[in-house]
Amino acid sequence: MRKETWLVLNVSFWSFAAGFVIHLFSGLFYVSSFVGERDPLLLLMLTVYMLSGNLVLHGFLYFAVAVPLMAGLFRCWNPADPAMYPLSGSGIGLAVALVAAFLVKTVDWYSMMLWVSAGFVFGCLWWNRLYAAGESQYAT
User: Fold this and answer.
1) HSE-up (13 A, CA, CB side) for residue 25
2) Which terminal Cβ of the chain has fewer Cβ within 10 Å, N or C?
3) Structural domain boundaries, residue 35
């Protein structure tokens, strides 16, 4: 496998993991607001149960739609300001979150937190690992 392909896979995996952690914490805050202070394992189990409903759909949309879209956009587009990478990644994440909301016919704010934060982290890691490190053929 080419080094750049490995870097794109690495960036996409870690950005989805970071988005899922934000997703998990926001769900944990929501569950703890109505359950109260009880057993932490109960809170974690209720949170995972609440968030696991659409996780397969979001994982598929992220790796099949958002990652190729963001990688293709970032390869072709070379902005002078590095802040445009995380901002455009967040915008793509928000757009795909709205598509996912249309598919399941409800707006899930926790899933939107997953998408926007995953897109933001993807943009940050893309700029940091592929451009700032100079390890890419697309490096400036």
Assistant:
1) 8
2) N
3) 3-132
Closest CA to 113 of 19, 10, 39, 36: 19
Q: State the total domains in the chain.
A: 1
pLDDT in tens, 36-67: 777 888 888 888 888 887 788 888 888 998 88
Q: What single letter denotes the amino acid at residue 107?
A: V
DSSP string, 58-86: HHHHIIIIIHHHHHHHHHH---SSTTHHH
Does residue 11 fall inside a structural domain? yes
Residue 137 resides in a domain:
no
Structure tokens at 127: 């700029």
First to last CA, the chain: 23
How much is the pTM?
A: 0.79
Give dist(CA 123, CA 90) in Å, integer: 8
